[in-house]
Amino acid sequence: MQIAELSVLLVWGAATALTIALVAFAIDLGRRTEERADARAEARTPAAVGAGSRPTLAPASTLPATPPGDTGHGPARRRAAGIAMSTTWLGTALLLVAIVLRGIAAGRTPWANMYEFTLVGSFMALAVFLGMNVRKDFKFLGAFVTGLSVLFLVLGLNVFYVAAMGVQPALQNYWLVIHVGVAISATGIFTVAFVASVLQLFRDSRDSGSPYLQRPGFRWLDRVPTPTSLEALSFRLNAVGFVLWTFTIIGGAIWAEHAWGRYWGWDPKEVWSFVIWVVYAAYLHARTTRGWDGRRAAWFVIVGYLCVLFNFTGVNLIFNGKHSYSGLNTDTTGGA
Amino acid sequence: MSDKATYRPEGIHDAFTEGRAGDAPAATDGGPTKPAGGPNLPTLGWRGTLRWTWRQLTSMRVALMLLMLLAVAAVPGSVLPQRGQDAAAVLAYLGDHPTLGEWLDRFGFFEVYSSVWFSAIYILLFVSLVGCIVPRTMSHGRALRNRPPKTPVRFGRFPATAGARTTASPDEVTTAVARHLRGPLRRLPTFRVDVGSEEPRLGRPATRTVAAERGYLRETGNLVFHLALLGLLVSVALGQLLHYRGQAIVTEGRGFANAVVDYDTFDKGAWFQPSSLSPFSMTLDSFDSEFASDTVAFAQARDFTAHVTVSEPDGGQHSDQIKVNSPLTVDGAKIYLQGNGFAPEITVKDGAGEMAFSGRVPFLPEDTMYTSRGVVKVPDVSAGQEQVGLVGYFLPTAVVEADGSARSVFPQPQNPLLVLEVYRGDLGLDDGVPQNVYRLDTASLTPSVDDDGQTIKLLVKPGETVELPDGLGSVTLGEDVPRYVALDLRYDPSLAWVLTFSLTALAGLAVSLFTPRRRVWVRSWETTDDDGRPVTRVELAGLARGDDAGLQREVDKALAAVPGLADGTGHDTSHDKTADDTLVDDHQRTATED
Ligand code: HEM
């Protein structure tokens, strides 16, 4: 009991640390922007002239490269970035401990209901983000990744929370560890890729002169990488996510064969996993099809990620399928 | 990345940089065209039209559209109830929405995944896939025998370049770099490598060259993936045709034989052979269940085990068990534990005192406390007596409230109680219309009521006999309450194939997505340094298919393999390194040199 409560406290602690990180990342983005503003003003004129049919490329070729990671201008900025990264590490570590304690309290793998899925999914997104930052500088993603994580954690604590307990017979299987674990990892990776694609669209629109995005409030967009680089980043993450998702589906089918007596039965969760898979497969094809790359590919990522979110929330809460393991409804008789 | 955005260095336009064949614009040479002006519009002729349609169908753009359509078409099946999953819900929906429901039904919305339109989409998709993959497989087969492309004349505008000076001779450089690029495995070289020489050209003296290419596996993986999808589709379809599946409810101490007649429900594929029913039989010896009793997860199911004895066709017998996550396999057929409940032993005597019904009646659990609903139909009464129907609940651990209402508070049989309502009249069983055994149609029956007009509820404990109202006789509940299990037996010979093709697809996918496809060229020649001493000049260039963050590293590693590198001259890589150091790769920017 007490362990379970401690776990909840730690989740709140993690959410707090990540909120601080969110603010610090935002300040960091803002500060970088001021430094960039002048350079951009100069570069913009030739860029606009040569824009033509492919305006997205103009900034990349006319501006000096805008490496987001070139640190070293101004101690204040470095301080904000430093605080942001260390609080993200702290929040992620707290979350990890909270997850482990949750597992101890329940006496099983800590990802068997929606609340736990939110915790581990947020952890995965944060871990992917931190892992990416070990070798290179991807701090521009920080504000968004921590922001989404805080949102998920608070939602989890307030909406999805259920007490720690064991699971029904249908879930007592090593496939719970594998299938759900891989699904959560894929979700974490898709989350980061989603952020990259959204940034890609914003930056692309700003570069091609969208009046709304010309407002000073969006100057920070000049500090994120070019749309092409963001697209490439998103693709690499999505490729990994897609392979993991494929494995999630195969693992789920093997488990369903054991637990439910059929490997595929078009249960709502299966339908939506399939839809997600097809959307991301379409995304991979879109990238290699002329006229469907760039912005349209990013839209695929967004649609795909919305499907991922819906598969997790909507399908659990609205439809009544065999996957109703959210822990929020009590109408099952134990899958048997 | 955009085709337009990807820079193509001169001299090497081929499939590697151009993308795929299936992406080419559709045919414009599609057969004879009639002169314009007449009433006939220009036409492609039927062969041209066919060819045009085929090219369209096998184009990437159409594959993309079909994939999107497939995703959209799959959604209604999760929103609307489906016959295959929940036939009762479909009936309820049709009842609630008579007009809309009828139209939806007409268009197959209650059987989305076997509907004409859903099937049409995926069949077209797979036709498109075959049309796309077969030519690719053939051209890949040819490409596998190809040599790496010749070393380009200029390295300047390649996305990754490097250069250095060394004291080693061009021959030594060439040998060392070629060995490095081939890698340690002779049979499975990392790069396919050609070494060569060039005549003096463009102000360069004679040079030695290395041309290397890696990543043929990428396309192999891609083809394997798509072919495995095809195999998957075929094996799933075969499974559908050959499978059979039967459901039976078995109570403790009883058994069933694997024969069509012994199943409560049985369905089979079109190519099913009765001979694939292996003639074994099985007895349920006992059934154990465990439920949590702590406050947090009170009454949550923890474990179900059915202990069975299997009699094999050859006469052998053995005991085994079936659990929720571990089906029992007998002769390739799998037996699943799909449900469980109580089947109280109920005896009914009619008003004349004659035995009218005796048997175990499965009650279906309706909640986590196993409040279970069941029906007893008693048509075989003595002449002159009215037929009797009993409807009610079995409560494993009953608590009777002050107002007489009863409920179950735990799923184990700690205080079993049967609560029954009594109906009399014509049960309608003699009409020959099949009836649901778990439902009593009370519309034409008369309920037994007390003086206040309230429906009478009989409470029967194990071992008790209770008089039925209105002189209808009596009902007895057996001393022990047997449990039943709902078993689901399934035979699908395609399972191993389905699994194999899925895993092959996964492996092919991973290989195709994560194998880098790269070319590296090295050129070295003799020259002199600033002080006039003889040195060897080495230059390298790299090119990748698509986005490849590791390309520069690959080129740098090849450079590092050069022996006798002069200090300080090492990395005059001359392009904008900051971008590559800090960011994901960005060919446009890294290729700004020259
Ligand atoms: C059942 C339908 C299909 C599915 C689920 C599917 C799935 C996929 C996936 C996941 C990839 C990613 C692997 C990679 O990027 O290398 C891929 C690649 C590819 N697919 Fe498909 N595909 C389907 C149908 C088709 C069809 C009909 C075509 C031909 C018109 C096609 C042509 C290709 C090609 C050429 C690639 C390689 C793209 C590249 O080189 O990056 N696919 N497919």
Automatic annotation (TrEMBL), chain A:
<dbReference type="InterPro" id="IPR045062">
    <property type="entry name" value="Cyt_c_biogenesis_CcsA/CcmC"/>
</dbReference>
<dbReference type="InterPro" id="IPR017562">
    <property type="entry name" value="Cyt_c_biogenesis_CcsA"/>
</dbReference>
<dbReference type="GO" id="GO:0017004">
    <property type="term" value="P:cytochrome complex assembly"/>
</dbReference>
<feature type="transmembrane region" description="Helical">
    <location>
        <begin position="6"/>
        <end position="27"/>
    </location>
</feature>
<keyword id="KW-1133">Transmembrane helix</keyword>
<feature type="region of interest" description="Disordered">
    <location>
        <begin position="38"/>
        <end position="77"/>
    </location>
</feature>
<keyword id="KW-0812">Transmembrane</keyword>
<keyword id="KW-0201">Cytochrome c-type biogenesis</keyword>
<feature type="domain" description="Cytochrome c assembly protein">
    <location>
        <begin position="113"/>
        <end position="321"/>
    </location>
</feature>
<dbReference type="Pfam" id="PF01578">
    <property type="entry name" value="Cytochrom_C_asm"/>
</dbReference>
<feature type="transmembrane region" description="Helical">
    <location>
        <begin position="271"/>
        <end position="286"/>
    </location>
</feature>
<dbReference type="GO" id="GO:0020037">
    <property type="term" value="F:heme binding"/>
</dbReference>
<dbReference type="GO" id="GO:0005886">
    <property type="term" value="C:plasma membrane"/>
</dbReference>
<keyword id="KW-0472">Membrane</keyword>
<feature type="transmembrane region" description="Helical">
    <location>
        <begin position="237"/>
        <end position="256"/>
    </location>
</feature>
<feature type="transmembrane region" description="Helical">
    <location>
        <begin position="117"/>
        <end position="134"/>
    </location>
</feature>
<feature type="transmembrane region" description="Helical">
    <location>
        <begin position="176"/>
        <end position="202"/>
    </location>
</feature>
<feature type="compositionally biased region" description="Low complexity">
    <location>
        <begin position="44"/>
        <end position="64"/>
    </location>
</feature>
<feature type="transmembrane region" description="Helical">
    <location>
        <begin position="87"/>
        <end position="105"/>
    </location>
</feature>
<protein>
    <submittedName>
        <fullName>Cytochrome c-type biogenesis protein CcsB</fullName>
    </submittedName>
</protein>
<dbReference type="InterPro" id="IPR002541">
    <property type="entry name" value="Cyt_c_assembly"/>
</dbReference>
<feature type="transmembrane region" description="Helical">
    <location>
        <begin position="298"/>
        <end position="319"/>
    </location>
</feature>
TrEMBL record, chain B:
<feature type="transmembrane region" description="Helical">
    <location>
        <begin position="62"/>
        <end position="80"/>
    </location>
</feature>
<feature type="domain" description="ResB-like">
    <location>
        <begin position="60"/>
        <end position="556"/>
    </location>
</feature>
<keyword id="KW-1133">Transmembrane helix</keyword>
<dbReference type="InterPro" id="IPR023494">
    <property type="entry name" value="Cyt_c_bgen_Ccs1/CcsB/ResB"/>
</dbReference>
<dbReference type="Pfam" id="PF05140">
    <property type="entry name" value="ResB"/>
</dbReference>
<keyword id="KW-0472">Membrane</keyword>
<protein>
    <submittedName>
        <fullName>Cytochrome c biogenesis protein</fullName>
    </submittedName>
</protein>
<keyword id="KW-0812">Transmembrane</keyword>
<feature type="region of interest" description="Disordered">
    <location>
        <begin position="562"/>
        <end position="594"/>
    </location>
</feature>
<dbReference type="InterPro" id="IPR007816">
    <property type="entry name" value="ResB-like_domain"/>
</dbReference>
<feature type="transmembrane region" description="Helical">
    <location>
        <begin position="223"/>
        <end position="242"/>
    </location>
</feature>
<dbReference type="GO" id="GO:0016020">
    <property type="term" value="C:membrane"/>
</dbReference>
<feature type="transmembrane region" description="Helical">
    <location>
        <begin position="495"/>
        <end position="514"/>
    </location>
</feature>
<keyword id="KW-0201">Cytochrome c-type biogenesis</keyword>
<feature type="compositionally biased region" description="Basic and acidic residues">
    <location>
        <begin position="1"/>
        <end position="21"/>
    </location>
</feature>
<feature type="compositionally biased region" description="Low complexity">
    <location>
        <begin position="22"/>
        <end position="33"/>
    </location>
</feature>
<feature type="region of interest" description="Disordered">
    <location>
        <begin position="1"/>
        <end position="42"/>
    </location>
</feature>
<feature type="transmembrane region" description="Helical">
    <location>
        <begin position="116"/>
        <end position="135"/>
    </location>
</feature>
<dbReference type="GO" id="GO:0017004">
    <property type="term" value="P:cytochrome complex assembly"/>
</dbReference>
<feature type="compositionally biased region" description="Basic and acidic residues">
    <location>
        <begin position="569"/>
        <end position="594"/>
    </location>
</feature>
